[in-house]
Each structure stands twice: as structure tokens, then as C-alpha cells.
Amino acid sequence: MNHPPPERPPARVRVTSTRRDAPTRHDVRPLTRDLDEQSTLGEVYLSGLMGAQLRLALQVLAFGAVGLGGLPLLFVLVPATRSLTIAGVPLAWLVLAVVVYPVALVVSRFYVRASERIEAEFSRTVERG
Amino acid sequence: MGGDAAGNGVNTAYGLVAIIVVCVLTLAVGAFGLRLSRTTSDFYVAGRTVTPYRNASAIGGEYLSAASFLGIAGLIYTGGLDMLWFPVGYTVGYVVLLVLVAAPLRRSGAYTLADFAEARLESRAIRRMCSFLVVGIGWLYLLPQLQGAGLALRAVTGAPSWLGGLVVAAVVVANVAAGGMRSITLVQAVQYWLKLTAIAVPAFVLLAFWAGDGAPGPAVLRTDPGWAQPLHGLAGQGHPVYATYSLLLALALGTMGLPHVLVRFYTNPDGRAARRTTLTVIALLGVFYLFPPVYGFLGRTYLPELPAGAAPDTVMLSLPGLMAGGTLGDILSAVLAGGAFAAFLSTASGLTISVAGVLDQDVLRGWLARLTAQDATTVQGFRLASVPAVLVPYAVSLVVEPVGLATMVSLAFAVAASTFCPLLVLGAWWRGLSTVGAGAGLVVGGLLAAIAVAATVLAGPIDGWPGALLGQPAAWTVPIAFATAVVVSLATPGRIPRNTSRTLVRLHSPEDLALEGRADQPAPRNRSTISGRS
């Protein structure tokens, strides 16, 4: 309703009940309302949150891309690594059959904690305001 | 073929008992869950009250399919080291899913992928495309499950191939139609532990036998040392480096687009729980995937030549007979066969739930309402929809030649990576995504991937680059799909959904903020009859 009038009137649409509109709540705090109403302030907060989360996600993905995606490249560029063994176990088998899994778990754990920290900070900021 | 004539040395009686026990157990747990399943929300998303630990077991149970249980061991048997990229990719897919879409998806508050797309892009047309794709990917993924069931049942009992698929189809329809998501969640959670036990216990016993034999190495190392080295096994298609990267991309990005995986994220109570669930899933998968390579390696050691007419996918089932022999061998084989059946049942159930959900919401409901003058309840529609959801791929599985369980599954991943991955990632993170752009991305990615799948499945082996590009399409279809969605969106800024900002606020803000329009607060069980929502 508060949008500026467009050049031409928008096409008429039939208004029916929407699929997933729950009853809205009106007892919200001021800053969360900024988020709801997409005011400039709300936009700033949202951008901050999304940016922080996205940076974190891209860090994790970059780590994976280099760590895992670098392996075939290593095998191509340094053929000797293809048959390298550590204590009698071939390196490639060791990495791909075993080491990958605990590393994936540790990285994911790091991500979950970091992203929850970002969210906690966001909630604190918004609710204080 | 008689029992032992199948060339696997599996004792028919034990194997049959194991398979029957798994089927009965599945039905029994489902019936128990049925008592808890009352509302439509229960049917679709288990009332959103599933704890992360149980939900993770359920995701693990659902995800570890025929391709994981039998397929990987068979692949490693034939292809060697390079095939380890399959389980690695299956697991890494969850890391990608975790960091990019787990929490936003849950916070969208939608029931299905189609609901998410409609809510985010505010377009019925996009919704229809998504529904179409969910059904397509679901059926493509169900196909190898049903074929694998036929393969395993034949290896164990000598029954004709069509019977195994039929058994799985019947049990799945009975369970899904009866209990919906809530009972299935329990079934799947039990299935994960069943499968882990079924693959781990025989592995340890066989490893003990192997150590007792003086830990021999596979004979193949002397004749073909490449088996144990990287960049060799995928060379069947030529261009192993390309194939490796393309496969990794398909598996890493495709996981988030698998309909039966997505629907599980909506069963979490909130976004935080969705993340913690994913974390547990990664741990559970990591533990499971330690075992299939053991069977591939032992298979190469004790079964240098595959018996004529036996599929590599059944190598695992014949190992205990070769190594342990006697009653112990029979029992271990039976345990493996039971575990494999658990894998078919659980994955097929999960896929059927998602496909039935879409068929019900987008096809049957309107039709049923007209037919019965609104007398049919939503739950009846869902039950009815579960029948075609399984029977169509079953019919196709009788006609199409099997191309290998894991190959088929990786094609389903490639389609998912080329369609839903751009939609979900751009939808969750980019304000500039327009309705037209998202649609164009879906159409282009879906068409290219579908062409590659059709060529691979129908045309048989193709040589050189065309074969490599079509056999592992993700490396080019995914970037093209992303690029199409971005470029078309930039060209049509007027078609960016009006409420994009509002939707993104909901997708990304933590649950402890009281926001308007958050329709999905953790709800008491009796709140959610679907009539208010549809």
C-alpha cells in the first residue's frame, strides 16, 4: 500500500485466500518491525546478517574446493603422488576412504558454531534497539 | 535360476528369512508410528517435532540407498580407487547443503520444494515446473532402487528380477499410505542403524578372516596396478580428470536438490535444529561409508574374476560364502541381503513420500475435489497418490536395461544439481533473482541434464569427449543453469518478486526474533490441519 504509484495501474488480480498466510502478530518490537516493513534500517540489518552468513559459507566452500578439488589436480601434476604410500597404506586410499569424513565433520561443526554466533549477535543487536 | 545357481553361494533360506524380517520390521514400525500420525502436518512433515538426532538418523536411513549399500562396493570392485569419489561426494553434498541452504530452507516454512519455490518467487508457473522436476528426479532415483531390489532378491533366492521390485513397491505403498511422514520418520531412523549394523558386522568378521589368511593383496595389483591408483577407474568414459571433477560437482551440488532429502529439512522444529541435524547426518554418513570400500577391496582379493552373468553390484553378497563359508557365511550373506533390502525400502519410501506429496498437492487434489464434490480429505489424496508414485517407476524398471545402480543415481544427482541447486542457492542468497530468471534457469538446466541422461541411458556407451560430457554432465550443465538464471534475472529486473526482501528476512533471521509473517513457529501438534493452509 505504501509503494509509490507505478506509471500504469497494475494488472487487476483476483484476490483469494493465500496458501500459507498465518495470522499475523502485532505485538512485535520496534526493530523487528523495521525488518518486517523493509524500511531502510531493516534493509541495513538484513544485509549485514546475510553478508556475514554468506561470507562464512563461502569460506567453508573455498576450503572444501581447495582441499578436495585440489586432490585430482595434485594427482595430475605430480604423478608420483598417485602411488605414494604412508606406512604401507596408499595415500590416495587413506585420504579418500578415511580422512575425508572426520575433516568434513570438523569443518561442518565449525560452520554451525560460527553461524549460530552470527545469529545470536544479530538477535542481540536487533532486540536491544 | 536356482539359489546357488545364481553364482553367489548365498543360502536361499537364510537370505529369504533376512529379507522377510526386514520387510515385516518395516511394516511393524510403520504401524506403530501410525498410532501417532493424525493430522495432515503429521503426514507431510511429521508435525515438525522431530529431534535433530532422530531426524538425522532418518535422513541417513533414507539417503543410504541401493547405490550406497551395494553399488559403491561394486563400483570399487570394477573401477578401483576413483570410485571412492562417489561416497566422498555423497557426504560432501551435505556440507554444501549445510552451509548454503539448510537453515533458510527450514525457515521458509514451506512443506515441499514446490512450496518453497512458490513462496520465494511468487509464481504458480515456477511451482508447476518444480513439481514436475520433483516427480522426474524422484522417479529417476526410484528406478535403480527397484532394479537393485530385483537384483538382490535374484542373487539371494533365484527369484525372477521383477519380483524384488514388486515386493519393495508393495511394502512402501503400504507404509507410506498408512502412516505418512511421521511413521516413516521412525521407520527410517530404525533403518539407518539396521543398515549400519548389517554392513559393519560382516565387514569386521570378513576382515578377521582376511587377517587370518595373512592379509593378502588383490591379484589385480600385479596385472593392473592402475586399479589402486587415482585417475584410472573413471577412464572407462575417457577423460578421467574431467569425469572426476564433474562427478564431484554433481554429487556435491545435487544433494540439496534431491526431493526426499529436502522434505526432511521441513521436519525440523527450527533453523538451528536443521543445521544440527545436518551435522549429525555428516557424522552418520562418514561412519557408514568407511565400510563399502572394505567390500570392494576384499572382493578384488577373493573373487579375482566376476562369475559370468553376475552383476558387480552383487559382489558384496557373495563374499561371505567365499571367505567364511558354511553356516557363518550363509548368515553373514543373509545379514547383508537384509541390509540391502532395508536400503531399497527406506530410500524408496522417502522418494515415494516426496513424489506422492507433489502428485497429491498439484495434480490429484483438484481432480479429487471435482470428482467427489470436496468430500475427499487431504489425507486420502496423499494415500491415493502414493500408488502411482511407486508404480510408474516400477513399470519403467521392467522395461529399461539396468546401467548400474550408482551410475543411475549419479544421473539423478546431475539433474538435481542442474535445476534445484541454482534455484535454491540464488533463491536463498540473491535479491536480484527474478521469476523469469529462475524459470529460465530451471528450463535450461533441466533440458540439458535430461538430454544427457537420455543419451547415456538409451544410446549405450559413447566414445571420447561426447561420451564423457554426456555421462558426467554436471560440469557444464550446472554453470550454464546458474549463468542463465543470473543473466535472465539481470535482464528482467521488473520481474523480481515484490516481497523478496520480506521473504529473505524470514529465511535468514533467527527464530528467537518475533517477526510478522513467520507462519512456522514450532507448533503444538494439534494446530496444523492443512485446511487452514490450502
Whole-number radius of gyration of chain B? Answer: 23 Å
Number of domains of chain A: 1
- Count of helical stretches of chain A: 3
Q: Per CATH, which architecture of the domain at 4-222 and 253-402 in chain B?
A: Up-down Bundle
Based on Cα principal axes, name the global outline of chain A. elongated
Point out poorly predicted stretches of chain A: none
Which structural class fits the helix and strand makeup of chain B? Answer: mainly alpha
Strand content of chain B: under 5%
Low-confidence stretches of chain B: 1-9, 517-534
- Give the terminus-to-terminus CA distance of chain B: 52 Å
- Work out the number of β strands of chain A: 2
* Main beta sheet of chain A: 2 strands, antiparallel
> What fraction, in percent, of the residue positions of chain B are helical?
over 70%
Determine the strand fraction of chain A and express it as a percent band: under 5%
CATH class group of the domain at 4-222 and 253-402 in chain B? Mainly Alpha
Shape label of chain B: globular
User: What is the alpha-carbon Rg of chain A in Å?
Assistant: 25 Å
Succession of helices and strands of chain B:
HHHHHHHHHHHHHHHHHHHHHH
CATH superfamily placement of the domain at 4-222 and 253-402 in chain B? Sodium/glucose cotransporter
Oligomer: heterodimer
